[in-house]
Design goal:
mainly alpha; elongated; single chain; 136 residues; 69% helix
């Protein structure tokens, strides 16, 4: 079998397509959550705690400097506010994934319960035992 044919079979398998769709939707979902946090949640939160813009929260390690030649050396900072926003993004995404997995597990349990064999009546149990004894 040629390598191209093998790759084609691999690429069009259901699992591969499902994975690709999941990655694309996950990327879009991440952008939506990032926008939700940065544009909807953080401004009111910043206003509540004193008009703080979280992206402006920085710990400056070295201030910006203009040397004698006129060249600007940018400040070295630790961007704590951006980290807080990313952390909130992660928590929201992790919670959403948890809820989805929990819902899928509940649906799987219901499907397994519906597909389970119904309980046997007493005569059916006796007939099953007789059948098993006759097989021996």
């Amino acid at each position: 079998m040629s390598m191209i044919k093998e790759f084609k079979e691999f690429a069009v398998k259901g699992n591969m397509v499902d994975l690709a769709v999941g990655i694309i939707i996950g990327g879009a979902f991440g952008k939506v959550v990032s926008s939700l946090v940065a544009d909807v949640l953080m401004p009111p939160l910043g206003l509540l705690i004193g008009g703080i813009n979280f992206t402006d929260i920085k710990l400056t390690l070295k201030a910006a400097v203009i040397d004698a030649a006129g060249k600007t050396h940018e400040a070295v900072t630790i961007n704590i506010g951006n980290f807080i926003q990313s952390l909130i993004d992660f928590i929201i995404i992790a919670f959403a994934v948890f809820v989805m997995v929990k819902a899928i597990n509940v649906m799987n349990r219901k499907a397994e319960a519906a597909g389970a064999a119904p309980a046997l009546t007493k005569p059916e149990e006796l007939l099953t035992e007789i059948r098993d004894l006759l097989k021996k």
